[in-house]
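Q: What does the assembly look like in three dimensions?
Context provided by user:
Components: two
Sequences:
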Amino acid sequence: MECNYYDILDFQKLEKLWKINFINSITGFKPANLIGTRSKNNKDNVAIFSSVVHLGSNPGLLGFTLRPQDERQTDTYKNLKENSFFTINSINIDSIDKAHQSSKKYTNDISEFTELNIEQYNYKKFNAPFVRDSDIKIGLKKVEQHLLYNKCILVVGKIENIIVNSSIIEKDGNINFDKSKIVCISGLYSYYKPKLIKKLNYVKS
Amino acid sequence: MECNYYDILDFQKLEKLWKINFINSITGFKPANLIGTRSKNNKDNVAIFSSVVHLGSNPGLLGFTLRPQDERQTDTYKNLKENSFFTINSINIDSIDKAHQSSKKYTNDISEFTELNIEQYNYKKFNAPFVRDSDIKIGLKKVEQHLLYNKCILVVGKIENIIVNSSIIEKDGNINFDKSKIVCISGLYSYYKPKLIKKLNYVKS
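A: Here is the predicted structure of the complete assembly.
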């Protein structure tokens, strides 16, 4: 295969936007999720994230990263300081456009739910907003955060509840994504719909 | 939509394997990568990971998580203690089976490259092994690690070099995955091939 080679010294010479696109897309596909949070004054916020990562099953533990917060704090970060509960919600083909727009900076008093016509869903007394249309909705409580090398923040949350479209759960507990319209992301703005190629077996390690 | 609801108290009642499959698949799609490391005695190791996450573009910074290492240390973890350099390599359709088998525990003296017939690639004097067939190969140096809530470890690495199949790089720096055979993972053993649905624009936030 014919390859392009980039060494660390070349990185500085790359055009800024080209480099951002490139470095954001080389890790492969990323999950596409909307994260919902609520301020202490009950202002709700929802924003798109592609950095959700599975950390453990017992207890159910997920993480996601926030960009550096030293210059300007995002509503997601501010809300999580005031209220530890948050939700992670899947994004499907039909809602790509409005989900994508949620990365825009809205002033604190505007709820993206209202502004972008994303229908909110409340479950029992859980103190953060879910996204009604999402096939997978997860309610979590923040248990810790880590300040990383480049001032990004890793937020770790424990799963409190899970609400899933009944029709996409397989007998063995796996989600059958071919029965859903759930998408993934590459880079900053390319949305892909995956199709199952191969289901193997668990390799006992 | 008809939904299944699981509250934190229900989690304990779920059958163990069902629960592992379920909690591993609810975050959506995960990148599929082979991580290559080298011990101080020049023993090479390669293992599959679905937890690679983008952390920053300037400097280029990526992370990935390791399972808890207190009971048994993996070769990836041990090698990274001895030698900070590692590689992240994409997985394509044709190599799913051998990549998947790399999650098996081999004894320290066995190289998965040899055992699984994964062809190794060395680049200049970079002190970790790449995977020859991978369309995207990234060389990194570990800069820090974080012990997380459940004893998982987040390893953070700075990108030192990038080698990419020339035919899949777009003019704007994005990878065009439709021109590659690169796959993603859901859960522990389901491999998906994504197809581009929509490329939007960067939303200035």
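Follow-up: The first strand of chain A starts at residue 3 and ends at 7.
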